[in-house]
Amino acid sequence: MHKLNICITILLLALLASCSQDAKKYRIGVSQCSDDIWRDKQNSELKIGAYFHDNVELRFAAAYDSDERQIQQIDSLVGTGIDLLIVAPNQVSTISPAIDRAYDKGIPVIVFERKTNTKKYTAYMGADNYEMGHLMGEYVATRLNDRGRIIEVMGLKGSSPAIERHNGFREAIAEHPGIQVVATLQGDWTEPTAYNIVKQWLDKNKDAGRIDLVFGMNDRTAMGARKAFKEVGGALPLFCGIDGLPGENGGIRLVQDSLLDASYIYPTHGDQLLQLAVDILDGKPYEKETKLMSALVTQDNARVLLMEGEEIMRQSRNLEQLHEKASQYLDQLGNQRTLIFVALAAILLLLALLAGIYMYYLQRARIQDERIQMEREQLDFYTQVSHELRTPLTLIEGPLAQLAETPDVKHASEEASNLFSIVRRNTHNLTQLINKMLDAQVGGTVHDLNAHLETQNLATPVPVEDNKPDEDASTVLIVDDNADIRAYLRTILQDKYRLLEAEDGKHGLDIAREQVPDLIVSDVMMPVMNGLEFCQQVKKDLVSSHIPVILLTARALERHQIEGYESGADAYITKPFSPELLLARIDNLLHSRHQLKDLWSVKTASEPVEAPATVAAPAPTPIEDAFISQFKKIVEERLSDSNLSVEDLAADMGLSRVQLYRKVKALTGSTPVDLLRKARLSKAQALLQASTLSVSEIAYQVGFASPSYFTKCYKDEFGIVPGEARKPN
Ligand code: FRU
Known about the structure:
CATH architecture of the domain at 127-267: 3-Layer(aba) Sandwich
Number of helices: 26
Number of strands: 17
CATH class of the domain at 127-267: Alpha Beta
Largest sheet: 6 strands, parallel
Bound molecules: beta-D-fructofuranose
CATH topology of the domain at 127-267: Rossmann fold
CATH superfamily of the domain at 127-267: Response regulator
């Protein structure tokens, strides 16, 4: 039971664990220096990249171009326990301490797009801003046919793209002496700042003359400058920017709409950036420096690039919707899984409960069985003890009762008489005590011996007379292994019955078969063959089946008595018994014996057929019936044989003369010879009435050797001579 519970608990825990257990999550912190459409595009690409990895969690932070805020955000991202940091530092040197702190904690750092002056980073990814500035410078020179006046509006001071783009641009322009940079204005990547500084410059330099082109370091800067120029009025110069984003306010559309003259695609590649992060976290090989490729956007290619860019955006949006749906399904699946696990757990609990109940009942049944078995053993033990105690008690109490009636005791001195009374009284007390004790030990299961004892008068004296039984007395076979009991029974029975003795069932059976006694008194517990088996054998055998059997035993339990009757016993008397009870029982059994007196009923003229004397007696058993039918058949077949002897009849029945004699006598009350004569006379009577044969002829025909003897016998039987039987009534 205990083990089962442990198993179920483990199973449940495993189930719960499988419910909640996910692969280890990679928590990736993304620290953006700004918040604008370029950053938005990149962030959404990072998210899409994460869709391809089940175990990535992104944590975004945007510093809105503030160093302090970005430093604080990096520290707090590290504090939440990120596994990797992606950072676009606002300026080259200002953010480095925060990056160092993250790196020193063992967190891999990817610097992207903007550079830092610390060496403590794991990888860098970004486009080449110098090259971009240089290419833009060359484009401008070409666009202006190497002649013209331009203004450069810078990105945020101290940020690496601003520095590098400026250097590239100026170096390219320097190659073209016809191009003159009229002003280099300090912006900060935002449109409002660009507008303000350009406006201020224009206001201050009203006489500066014509400006042919403004290079804003990103598209927003270029558009801010354009706004300022538009306000001032006059012919607008050309505006060039960088970023070249697709979408509504993106640089590509601005170029296509001729608001900008050119732009430069500044690659975002968020998905590629995410893959690099996962590779690092997975411990896979990766590039330390990744340079992203880029391209110029002009009036010539803006249309195609816009189409391509917007198609990509559309696909991204589809992807996002798909992901949204998928995660909804996954959520549902998760709920269903939880439901299934809960149901499973409930079923398991129920099973455990049922198993527990089942085992409890099993255990209870086992305990009950054991108790019953123990009780049975105890009972058998007490039965055994009872037998051991009651037998000697019987042999003390009985003889004492007999002794009490002898002249010696009756006329003994007063002192001797008193002593004798004390002995008798105490023997009786001891018997009662033992009975009570045994009853108490085995509870209500032992036959109520006390009640039984009260009905018996143990003190009833048995007359001790020296009479010998007469010749006709019935024969009783005593079967008991205890010589004292046999001797005691002898003293009780010898005056009335002729006795036979055997010390066990096997011998008893031999004697019963040979001598065919009228009754058997047998003990139950005996060596070699016990009384039950013996009784069964007696009742099975054709020769002895009719003999009444009294089982005499100390096995007082009801179930023992039932066993006794089942073996075929006619009576069951428990020890200690009263001699009178035994005598009465024997007498009763011998007299109620079933006797068939009408085997060959012989009718006289005046008397009706005698009714069978067996009305009140128990019906004969099938064995007896068969025996009698067979006997009748043989007698009738051989009736006419005047030499027919009882030996011949016995031989025909497969029995000895004695066996046949005793069996027939027991069953019918008549001897075989008597029955043979009766059969002959009965047949003769029938012939006298139905045939015309002479009396002599009839006498010979029914087996009489002499007609005169026939006449005598006939007269003896019927009271008339055969001739008279012929007269009509
Ligand atoms: C976006 C942005 C872009 C520019 C880049 C330089 O935040 O300002 O417009 O090209 O950053 O780092």
